[in-house]
Each structure stands twice: as C-alpha cells, then as structure tokens.
Design a protein that fits this description.
The structure is a single chain. The protein is an alpha/beta fold and 646 residues long. It folds into 3 domains: 5-205, ANL, N-terminal domain (Rossmann fold, 3-Layer(aba) Sandwich), CATH 3.40.50.12780; 281-352 and 354-469, Rossmann fold; 474-644, 2-Layer Sandwich (GMP Synthetase, Chain A, domain 3). It is 39% helix and 22% strand. The chain is built from 21 helices and 29 strands. The strands form 7 sheets. Strands 24, 25, 26, 27, 28 and 29 form a 6-stranded mixed sheet that branches. Strands 4-3-5-6-7 form a 5-stranded parallel sheet, with helices on both faces. Strand 24 and strand 25 form a beta hairpin. Helix 12 (300-321) packs across helix 13 (328-349) and helix 12 (300-321) packs across helix 14. The longest helix has 22 residues, at 300-321. The protein is globular and about 80 Å long. Residues 1-7 and 641-646 have low confidence and may be disordered.
C-alpha cells in the first residue's frame, strides 16, 4: 500500500480531508439510531468536523487546548476529537463508566476546557463536577433527550455549535483551511490515559505521526480494503479504539460503524457482519461462554452433533498448527461440519464475513484461541501498549499461534534486555507522559528505547512471546516459574468462572480467588433446583463450590504439577473497576488486590478453612458501603473428588 507521506498528509484531519476530496460519497462512518443505520459520507464527515471546529474556534478554543469526550461510541464524539486536532488542540477521551474521582483526576490533570458528552447521564456527571474543574469552560451534549429544561450557561448542544461554526465560517472563509494547513506530524493529537494497573493512570501524549505510523505499519501486514466495515464498540478511551476507528479507518478509508448502544452490540454485530474485528479477551471469552451455554441447552441430538464437530475441529486445528497434513476423512468431516455447525456459529456471532479478527489488550487463553480458529474464524493475536499507539506486533494469517503475539510490525524495532523486559523503538512511540517528566524518563532508556514493562522472549521463528507483566512474574518457593496470567487464562476457559486471581510468588503452591459467572453459574443452579438470591448467596452454595472445584481440576490437568491450583475460594462479589480492583479495560490491579485481600492470602497459606472478609464497595455516584462475610476455603487434591474444607 502506497505511503501518504509523499502527499504531505501528516495529520489525522488531513487524512479526512483527502478522503472527502477523493471519495466524497464513500461511507465514512455510520451509527445505528432507532434501529436504522445512518451513514455519513466522507464529505459529510469532513463537513461536520469543519463546522464543529469553526464553532469551537469562535468560542475561544485554540492551539494547545484539550477537549474530552465521554460516552458510548457516537460519530459526533469522533467529529469533536478531530475538530480539536484541526485547531491544534488535543483530544482526551475518558471512560464513560468512570466514577467521579477518576473523572476529576483525568480531566484536571489533562487541563480539559471542553467536554463533549453523549447524553443526559454524562452531562449530569460533568455538571456535578464542574466546581472541581477550574479550567472547564464548555459542556456540549449530543443527545438532547431529557435536557430541554437545563439552563446552565456552560451547556450547549452539538447542533448549536455546528450552527455557530457555519456562521463563523461564512465570516472567515479561509479560517478552516489555514488552521488545517498549520497542523504537522509532531503535533500532539491525543492524550490517552493508561489503564493504571500499577497505580494512578498516566497521560500518554500521542502525536499524529505516532498514530498514522502505527496504522500504516499494521496495514502492511494485514489485508485492509477500502470500504471494509469495522464495528466501533470498544471504549473510546482505550487506545485500541482510537488506533482503529481514527488511525486505521482514516488511513485506509475503512467505514467505522457505531452500534445503537452497548446492550445491542451482539445484535448489531450480527446484522453488520464486519470485515475486520478487534476484541479484548473478555469479549471472546463471553462469546465462548454463550456457545457453551447454547450447546448445553440444546437437545441431546443437537448437543451430540455440536460436541462431535467441535472435537473434530479442535483436533484438526491442533494438527494444522503442528504442521501435520489432515487425513481425507478429517477434511470430509470438516466440510460437513461447515454446513451443520461452523458456518451457522460464525453467522450467529456476526463473523461470517470477517477476513481476520484480532484479540488484544491482555493475553487470551490458548484453549479459547483454538476454539475460534477451529470454527473457521481467522483469530490472531496483536500486542501493543498505550505508549506505542496500540501497535507493537501482530500475527500474519499464515503464522497464527496461541503462544505468541507474532512478529514486530514494519518500522518497529523490538529487543529483549538483560532482565527479559521487552523494549521497542519506532515512529509509533509516544512523545512522553503529560506533565510527568520523571515518569517519562523512567519509561525510556537513555538511548531512546521504550520499556514496555512486559517480560518476553523471541522464539525460534522470530515471534515475540509475552510471559506476563515483568513485575508480576515470580517464582514459587522451590524456584519454579510463576506467571499468574497463564494460570488464570486456563481457569477462565470455564464458562462458570468470570474472573480469577492466582497467587504463588514465593509461596509453596498456587492458590486462587474465583469470581463465578453469575449468568452461567446461576443458570446451572436453577436447573438443579438450587435457589439463591444474590451473587453472595450463589457463591456460598456448597454445590457451586464443588462445581468450580471440578472446573479447576480440569484446568489443573493441563498445567505442570507445581503450577496447579491447590486451594481456592469463591469471592462474595465480582471484581469491579469502581472498587479499584480492576482497570476499566478489565485488567487486575494485582498490587491493590494483594493488599485488599491480604487476609485471604494469609488464610490460603496458613491452612485455614475459612476467612473473615470485610471490604468496601464503591457505587457509581461515589457512595461507599461495607460488605462483611465469612468465606470458605476449599482444597483440591489431585486424583480425588473435590473436598470442601471442614
């Protein structure tokens, strides 16, 4: 694919301008509203960005200012980000489910002066915080429902800003083109806040050069066609969404599609049938769980057919990954399975048209990975970091492997230092952390290499293998390696386990805290006449404990003896980002969890059969409550039925 650099296209808004000029009627972005897909052509996309930028300019927004967007994926929120960039400002997307304290920190730290909110819920959140945001000058809303009686002078509708911009443009006909031309590759395009697994989120400053370089390098490895459909459903604050919905979509003229709301994503996915897709492990795990539930609920005949062809597909996928040729009878079986099982499953998932799908953001368990590939879904791994504009390495179609994250993308140099940490250098590496020079110096080596914080190595084929976060990799007390994510992914292959946290560093054995999946475990309990009233009540049921014990035993059978889980307990609540136990991207904050559940860890290794747990729960509005309970600890003995501790 030819480079756009020779054409002087150095910023994201300039890519949009090119698309509007060269493919004015092509589909730029869509949104589903009231059940109907509404399309903005590339020229309409550009016109909205232009008019909103002019409106912002007339209200005083200029070079160096910051604009935050908050809400679900909506075209207007993407328009707003590009408009800020046209004027030399930067966008700062924030997580729509952030609690007040998180929002205040990010918005103040980023020095946000304009917030563009999706709807009344997000407007209420912004208005409740405005006294704590001294730099905030303007709140813009997209969806006007419920806001007709609001009289705050800081509040304006998206449409009113467009109207102001159109009037400003008529009075200043050359203003937009002049501002667009001022932009250059090294201008800051956005501040993407890290997930904060090890502490307070840091604001990674990404330039236009960073984002465009990452998109172009990714496009060299993967087949990306003009007009491909891409579902924009990932949180806008996650750098992966910006990398694809803005970076790649603008560079490759891919059509971004915004679902109606988070609850309709699966339905909209099936209806759209995207050509390409990226999803974090949690989405793939949820899809697998749905398939397992449907298989379990089917009639004995249908369940038998599903299990037969699933087993056949997994055996064949394993043979292919090992380079073995398939037997004629296996190829015939796959052909029949394509008609009866594999094709219908891909259609149900909305992936029948997908040429490639990626999983990224965290490791995906190899069992889950092979399940999807065996059903004909070209699922591959991508590895990235916020500081690297979301792109470091990915797998070509012919080299998919559940144990690696592929080869470094073109123009990116990757090496492993003496401590086993992955380092990289390239045009996609960020400018630095906003207002955190010390943190930037800690993250960069003296000769300009970015420290990823991940432990890894290159295999014989030149593929990068990520073991775990470097800080999380440890050893059991006999010296055996302990990588918690590897064990946790094995456990989460079970449809009854939503989350798992493994412990074992400097300990004699591995223990795990388990959060059950309320949907699948609850359905299992109901079918057996086991009544429950809440997550806490369900987790206390002895039968559920035995169920989870059996699932852990299955996972243990695929692990070396020393890494097998020996003790476990069922948490009385789900791990929650509001309680700081997880990031907004569903990564465990291990240091915080270890401190919060110190009594549980102590009970695991002191031989206790139960532990008293007192924990604080945070509600979305910031209110807190305390939950007290006594939780049983269970033992797993190899080769014996699961035994509940006495």
């Amino acid at each position: 694919m030819s480079s756009d650099g020779s054409l002087g296209i150095t910023t994201l808004p300039k890519l949009l301008q090119r698309n509007a000029e060269q493919d004015s009627e092509g589909a730029g972005i869509r949104e589903k509203t009231r059940g109907v897909w509404q399309t903005y052509s590339w020229s309409a996309y550009r016109d909205n960005v232009r008019d909103f930028a002019l409106g912002l300019a007339s209200l005083g927004f200029g070079r160096g200012d910051k604009l935050s967007v908050i809400g679900d994926n909506r075209p207007q929120l993407y328009f707003a980000q590009l408009s800020a960039q046209v004027l030399g400002g930067a966008s700062v997307p924030v997580y729509q489910d952030s609690i007040a304290s998180e929002l205040v920190y990010v918005l103040n730290h980023a020095e946000t002066s304009v917030i563009v909110a999706e709807d009344q819920e997000q407007v209420d959140k912004a208005l409740s915080l405005k006294e704590q945001l001294p730099r905030l000058r303007l709140i813009v809303f997209d969806d006007p429902r419920g806001l007709w009686a609001y009289k705050d002078p800081m509040l304006r509708s998206f449409e009113s800003i467009l109207e102001v911009g159109q009037a400003f443009g008529k009075a200043n006909p050359d203003f937009y083109e002049t501002e667009l031309a001022k932009g250059n590759a090294d201008d800051m395009a956005m501040i993407a806040y890290t997930s904060g697994t090890t502490g307070t989120p840091k604001g990674a400053m990404l330039s236009h050069r960073n984002m465009i370089a990452a998109a172009r390098a990714f496009m060299e490895v993967n087949e990306v066609k003009r007009g491909d459909n891409w579902l924009s459903y990932l949180p806008m604050a996650w750098v992966g969404d910006a990398s694809f919905t803005l970076g790649m979509a603008l560079a490759a003229r891919v059509t971004a599609n915004c679902p109606e709301n988070p609850e309709t994503v699966q339905r909209d996915l099936r209806e759209l049938g995207p050509n390409v897709m990226l999803a974090p492990p949690r989405i793939w795990e949820n899809m697998l769980t749905q398939m397992q539930i449907k298989g379990g609920d089917a009639s004995p005949l249908k369940r038998g057919i599903f299990d037969f062809f699933r087993t056949l597909a997994e055996r064949c996928e394993l043979a292919r990954s090992e380079g073995r040729r398939l037997l004629l009878v296996q190829r015939l079986g796959l052909a029949v399975g394509e008609l009866m099982v594999y094709g219908p499953v891909r259609d149900q998932l909305g992936l029948r048209k997908a040429r490639w799908c990626y999983t990224g953001g965290a490791p995906l368990g190899p069992d889950t990975y092979r399940f999807f590939r065996s059903f004909g879904i070209n699922l591959k791994q991508v590895y990235g970091a916020t500081e690297a504009s979301a792109m470091i390495s990915c797998q070509p179609d012919s080299e998919a492997n559940p144990n690696t994250v592929g080869r470094p993308i073109p123009s990116i140099d990757v090496k492993i230092d003496d401590r086993g940490e992955v380092l990289l250098k390239g045009p996609n590496v960020f400018i630095g952390y906003f207002k955190q020079e010390a943190a930037t110096r800690e993250t960069m080596t003296e000769d300009g290499w970015l420290k990823t914080g991940d432990a890894g190595f290159f295999d014989k084929q030149g593929h990068l293998v990520i073991i775990d976060r470097a800080k999380d990799v440890g050893k059991l007390d006999d010296g055996s390696a302990f990588a918690p994510q590897f064990i946790e992914n094995k456990l989460k292959f079970s449809p009854f386990i939503r989350e798992a946290v493994a412990f074992g560093d400097q300990r004699p054995f591995v223990a795990a805290m388990i959060a059950v999946d309320i949907q699948t475990a609850g359905t299992w309990a109901e079918k057996r006449g086991i009544a429950y009233t809440s997550f806490l009540d369900l987790s206390r049921k002895p039968e559920v404990a035995d169920l989870i014990g059996a699932e852990i035993a299955k996972a243990n059978a695929t692990l070396p003896d020393i890494q097998q889980v020996k003790r476990y307990l069922l948490l009385n609540k789900e791990l929650d980002a509001d309680d700081a136990e997880m990031t907004r991207t569903r990564k465990v904050r291990r240091r915080f969890v270890a401190e919060k559940y110190a009594d549980v860890i102590g009970a695991f290794y002191s031989g206790k059969s139960e532990v008293d747990v007192t924990m604080e729960i945070t509600f979305e509005d910031g209110r807190k409550a305390t939950l007290n309970s006594t939780i049983a600890i269970h033992d797993i003995t190899p080769g014996e039925p699961v035994r509940r501790a006495a």
